[in-house]
Amino acid sequence: MKLLQNRSYRSKWRFILCIITILIVPSQIAIASNQSEDNNINVNAEWSNNPVVEEFYVAIEEKPASSDFINFNLTSTKCPDLLFYDLTTDSSLESLNFSINNGCQITATSFEYATSIYTGNDNISRISWLGQPYCVVDNNIENMHIARLLIDEDVDSDHLIADGRIFTLPEGFAITAFNFFENGDDKVSFLLTQNGTEKDRKTIKQDELYKYNLDTNSSNQIKNGTLRFNLEVIFGGTCTDLVKINSIRMISSNVQVINNNESFSFMLDGSKITCFGQPYYVIDHDCTGLTAARLLIDDSIDHCHRLKKGDTLFLPDGFAITILETHPHFTTCRQSTERFNYGYFSFLLTQYGNEIDSRTVNGSECYEYRLDLNGNGKNDNWVLKFNAGDIFTGDYVTIKDDYIEINSLKLISPDVLRIENVNEMNIVLEGYKINIENDGMTLTVVRDNITENILFSRDGTVSFMDNWFTVRVNNASDAVAVSSEVTVSDTYELVGAVEYLYSGYADVNLTSKDNPAILYYDLDNAQGHETLNLSIDNNYYSPYKNVPYRISPYSFVYTTRIYPTRDHNDLKIAWLGEPYMVIEHDSSTVVINKFLIDERSDDCYQLSMDDPLDLPCGFNLTASINDSNIACFSLIKDGLEVYNTTAGEGDLFQYKEDLNSNGTNDNLVLSFNVKSLNKSKGSVMINSLRMISPESLMINDGDVNMLATYTINIKNAGSTIEVRLKEDYIHSDVILNEDKLTGILKNTFFIRVNGAVEVVKLLNTTDTQQYEHELIKRRVNSIKTKIPDTMKNDTNRTIESNRTNKTKHDVPGFGLFMCIMILLIVRKKIRIK
Question: What's the Cα-to-Cα distance from 773 to each of 277, 601, 620, 621, rounded to whole Å?
Fold first, then answer.
């Protein structure tokens, strides 16, 4: 409907344009029409699942009245989403300690990170390193060899693999099962490949353990188990056979060597950082600066895309993958033999409709499209890559055509960002020293120069190691937070608390200060007043099978209370882990509005009439400069202007509405400072942006409907909100399925019991507000954007292809979609007439 309103052409011109479209791209329209025939095929007209960055606090400390130091002593159980914890042991595997003095400096002598080797249930030596699990390949008093633990599943985690099908693993590895029941025996052959190259081929019997060993410690002894799994059972089918495997354990083939008494520096190459509030992939980093590109897609192995011949997968930045041919490895029943070979498919890669690559890829291979993004004269930087999975034969019932699967799709923008002065990012990458202690069992990382304290940046932050964590101090220097960041592409489980079970019982008592990852802590105001208390036990008769744990209903209580801001101009409250502004409150009702944006003076935006600032809830803001060098602001909501005003440099913009229904617009919805004006460019820079939702949430005393099975009570003259289970629900225990997430408080938080009790908050890309506008920090003068020539069609680049005859193909792009939409409009218009 919106498309019809935006088109101003007369009907006959639409018709003539569509005739021209049909003459030019008949094959393209045919390809697009095929995309709607099969709903099982995953073809995206527009990519909508871009990765986002979520920063969360993992620890909070407030300045004590009796001391000039703020001390942090972090352990795995206190900070489970920063430091690694293993559910099989209740020991603290990692620790991080440091202090901040009264000069707002992190003292070099106080900084220490420590981690120790432990033995897992499988008798394998393990260690956690920078919050991630590793296997210890070799260790002594002089050095330690460790490899990242990629998969660690138990006997309850099983997988089915059909005859001739591909099971994808990390680092380009893939397993294929074939040659079932050879000579009538219960055995099957497995083919292991890496990036399409055969690494191993062996036949094992049912209940046997498959092992692939690689010399990962360079000792010329193949003894370290890179991959192992158990063959649980083999199923014989009418047309195809199946095998069930479980207990997969896989470690990385890339081994890290850590030497004793060695000066140590971290590198950002290949890591992810945050710029302008968006995730970026670091291409390279040296003493002259850092080159990074916006991370556009970051799919996991589990995220598959199904495409059949003629389908096009449209990606961000104008990229598109079009499938040209599909060739399954076999088309009839029971053709998997010892001479098994993978199928293959051909595809075309385009950008904005221009062909930039074409390739034929075998199943299980990895594809990479590379460009020169760092200016070294070589096309050695990947821009797009994915794993090729199976090529399936259509069954002519549910899916008519052959189709292929790709997974682990990753894409970065060819438009790279060059940061000339990396020091302004304030990431401490150098100056560390590693010691191996306790007879080669413990690693410690300290500062090499203990006389040089660590300073905070202008915005009160400093990041450590490979940007692993950040320390953030508030403006009053009376509260400090340790924060971490995750890149969320789908759903991320943020573990905010861990409590180990003792004799089948655990008390969970969470507060904003102790568990800021899931309960809200207001760092600027040094206030945190949410609590969540519950008990978990197995001391009851369960009417259900395999559900031994419960939440005792009498133990469950959630509380939060109103508090004043530091300037006492406003009242705030945290509600279910999110900050809200208090509009009004009394003993029977509390009216609150959610904070959508609450930024500091260092967070700046530049806008103009041609470049508006898009805001949540349908708002956008434009600015212009009049002849008197005054900024003219216009605030638009859903296409209509709701407010306009003028302001000069240093002035405060305020937009108010009547949120408490008193007949007066006295509730502040949007505010910011006017930082500077640029009359020659007609642009205005603003900062300290603050916005609350115009939609109010009314909480009533005694409410039993808002949170379903819970009752809300307002106490202390309207200053405190308490939530308990309903009285008629009080005799029904909250049943916890082992190793499954159970939602509480209307699925705001989740509980999982698996050797320990985990309190989880789910982060989703759809829940995160994204503002597609350039965020300008104080360091903006040191940042330059480099658009490489390779963004265009690089005719000089050699394209590797298995096809001998390279032809030009018409490929559907954005123009195709516009043409199809116009054609549909014309058809609808003709029917109306």
Answer: 10, 17, 11, 12
CA–CA separation, 742 and 747 (whole Å)? 8
Q: What is the number of alpha carbons within 13 Å of residue 611 lying toward its C-beta?
A: 13
Q: Where are the beta strands (DSSP E) in 260-365?
A: 262-264, 272-275, 278-286, 289-298, 304-308, 312-314, 319-327, 344-351, 354-362
Pairing assessment for the beta strands 427-428 and 432-437 based on DSSP bridges: unpaired
The whole-number pLDDT of residue 15 equals 27
76: region left, alpha or beta (phi > 0 left; psi from -120 to 50 alpha): alpha
pLDDT at 10 over 80: no
Is the CB of residue 382 less than 8 Å from the CB of residue 216? no
Q: To 10 degrees, what angle do helices 26-34 and 11-24 make?
A: 90
Q: Is the pLDDT of residue 464 over 80?
A: yes
Q: Return the bridge partners of 190, or none.
A: 177, 202
Structure confidence by residue, pLDDT tens digits, 260-300: 999 989 888 888 888 767 899 999 887 778 899 999 999 98
Question: Mean pLDDT across the stretch 170-186?
Answer: 86
Give the residue among 359, 336, 372, 352 at the shortest CA–CA distance from 406: 359
Q: DSSP of 469-508, one letter per residue?
A: EEEEE-TTSSEEEEEEEEEESSEEEEEEEEEE-BTTEEEE
User: What is the DSSP code (8-state) at residue 522?
Assistant: B
Q: What is the mean pLDDT of residues 316-335?
A: 80
Dump strand ranges (E) for 602-666.
Answer: 604-607, 613-614, 619-625, 631-637, 640-647, 652-657
> Residue 318 pLDDT more than 70?
yes
Nearest-CA neighbor of 121 among 249, 286, 245, 253?
249
Short-list 509, 526, 518, CA closest to 61: 526
Q: Residue 165, class by beta-carbon neighbours within 10 Å (0-12 exposed, 13-18 middle, 19+ buried)?
A: buried
Among 609, 453, 457, smallest CA distance to 100 is for 453
Sequence-distant (6+) residues with CB within 8 A of 162 are 177, 240, 241, 242
CB count in 10 Å sphere of residue 784: 11
Q: How many helices (H) and strands (E) does the chain have?
A: 4, 62
How confident is the model at residue 47, as a pLDDT? Answer: 60
Rounded-to-10 torsion of CA 466, 467, 468, 469: 150
Predicted structure pTM score: 0.82
Mean of the per-residue pLDDT values of the chain: 82
Indicate the pLDDT class of residue 542, thresholds 50, 70 and 90.
Answer: low
Helical segments of 119-254, H only: none
Collect contacts of 274-278 with beta carbons under 8 A, ≥24 apart. Answer: 274/53, 274/55, 274/485, 275/417, 275/419, 275/783, 276/774, 276/775, 276/777, 277/53, 277/771, 277/775, 278/52, 278/53
| Dihedral sign, Cα of residue 83, residue 89, residue 93, residue 99 | positive
b/e 382-421 (16+ beta carbons within 10 angstroms → b): bbbbbbbbbbbbbeeeebebbbbbbbbbbbbbbebbbbee
Give me the sign of the Cα torsion angle 370, 374, 375, 380.
Answer: negative
Please tell me the chain's helix, strand, coil percentages from 3-state DSSP, rounded to the nearest 5: 10, 50, 40
What the block records as the tokens of 142 is 């002089």
Chain centroid to Cα 294, Å, comes to 14
End-to-end CA distance of the chain: 17
**Residue 798: DSSP 8-state:** P
Q: Which of 59, 52, 28, 51 is nearest to 513 (CA)?
A: 59
| 263 CB burial (10 A radius; 0-12, 13-18, 19+) | exposed
8-state DSSP, 799: P
What gap in Å lies between CA 497 and CA 76, rounded to an integer?
10
Instruction: Using alpha carbons, select from 511, 512, 518 the residue that is nearest to residue 495.
Output: 518
Place of tokens 């995953």: 42
Helix (H, G, I), strand (E, B) or coil at 767: helix
**Distance, CA of 136 to CA of 609 (rounded, Å):** 59
